[in-house]
Amino acid sequence: MEIILREDIIGLGYKNEIVNVKSGYGRNYLIPTGKGIIASPSAKKQLAENLKQQAAKIAAKKAEAEKRAAQLEGVELVISAKVSATGVTYGSVNTATVAEELAKKGIEIDRKIITMRDIKKVGTFEAVIHFFKDVEFKLPVTVVAENQPEPKAEEVETVEEAPVAAEEAAATEEAPAAE
């Protein structure tokens, strides 16, 4: 069954788009709730005329969406979560958590336009933010353990110096053997 969508439905399509759905989904949910109408020939003609008239508005919305996506360039979220000894988080990191972290950075994003799987372990993941029909942004999300101490700068320096010292010792051992 062909339906013309009256609003964006993530996972199905965007406003003013013609989509194929199962008849029960169209008859029992989309049409009664006003989220879609049957795509009859007359409705398709009316849609084409409306899109022609609204082309400038759609272009402006797309430009605004691209501008918002450009704001996120170079942004990477680091979320600290309580983690068990096996590396599994207590609870999960989801779209609401990502939206809160972005708000802390001064970027207001509705959690409903973010899609991702719930994160239940430490690591680097990806959240997709759908700004407009063709404008998406893939945001890297890193989950770190909240209760794990981070290595100090002094420890990092000693770890880097150790291989250098080992190489110097190996070089001095090789030199007497050559004599």
TrEMBL record:
Keywords: Coiled coil, Ribonucleoprotein, Ribosomal protein, RNA-binding, rRNA-binding. Residues 13-40 form the Ribosomal protein L9 domain. Gene3D superfamilies: Ribosomal protein L9, C-terminal domain, Ribosomal protein L9, N-terminal domain. Residues 148-179 are annotated as: Disordered. GO terms for cellular component: ribonucleoprotein complex; ribosome. It comes from the Bacteria. Residues 44-75 form a coiled coil. SUPFAM superfamilies: L9 N-domain-like, Ribosomal protein L9 C-domain. GO terms for biological process: translation. Residues 161-179 have a biased composition (Low complexity). GO terms for molecular function: rRNA binding; structural constituent of ribosome. Belongs to the bacterial ribosomal protein bL9 family. HAMAP family: Ribosomal_bL9. NCBIfam families: L9. Binds to the 23S rRNA. This is Large ribosomal subunit protein bL9. It comes from Prevotella disiens FB035-09AN. The gene is rplI.
